[in-house]
Amino acid sequence: MRRGSVLFLPLTWLAFSTASAQTCTFSLANADFGNVDVLVPGAIDAVAQGTFSCTGASTPYVRACVSAGSGRYMTGPASAKLSYDMYIDAARTRPWGSLWEASAANVLTADIPIASGSGSATVPVYLRIFDGQAQSPVGSYSQGFLGAGYTGYNAVGYSTTPPTCTTSSGPQTAPSFTIRATVIAGCSVSATSIDFGQMGVIAAPINATGVITATCTKGAIVTLALNAGTGSGATVASRRMTRAGGSELLTYMLYADSARTQLWGDKSSGTTTVGLSGTGAAQTVTVYGTVPAQTTPKPGTYSDTVTVTVTF
């Protein structure tokens, strides 16, 4: 009789599990001031939206902290600078700072709720271009925060109490974003009156001058035109003052040159306009007026209103 034996072999099942590492990213949208007029007094404000996203997280929440380096100015034409700042509060009292600098308390922070390992949160970033930059020339300006060296991203998971932002977690993907603005041409214009004074019989020409003051954005190419005024039958080549309380008219002309050979109008009827290149500072242009010899109208006070049109 033969005996059989059964050999029992130990069977082992190896289960491999892979856990994906936590990865967090940051992006900044609408970081563009759009068109700005630096001649308008006061700061220029805008709001951008920062979005924090995390995947592969194993905790209910992630605290994410984004640092941004200092030196806030956009560069434009011919390396011109436009100063601005970014803030983490609506009152714009806490400039967005860096964990690696003295402004660590002002890093941009979000607490991200996590579901199935992923989550996101959006927070506002408050932008401000400072007042007093009227010398900034027309053109496009930008500053890029191009990842490592400019920005840093730290993220720490937690369950109940949010941790303090520190550098201990090591930087995540360093975010890159760009702040933009476009300085547009603008002008402010004022003028003094042209007073021909008192006159009797108008047997010879009577001259007087006035001044137009224009403050235009640096680099703006500007044209100043004068309309015909309000006198009945007036043209840009021959204007009319009207007697107060009546309808009598007094003819006069406006010129762009001291020799009084270039009638200043809107380029119709043989007239010219005056051009300027903006400097960001006030510029003055003289208006040369003449009341030509003519039949003297009824005594009284004569006046007219001429409109300056600025094209740029």
TrEMBL record:
Q: Which SMART domains does the UniProt record give? A: SCPU (SM00972)
Q: Which Pfam families match?
A: SCPU
Record keywords: Capsid protein, Signal, Virion
Q: Which residues form the signal peptide?
A: 1-21
Where in the numbering of this chain does the Spore coat protein U/FanG domain appear? 16-142, 176-309
Q: Mind telling me what this protein is named?
A: Spore coat protein U domain-containing protein
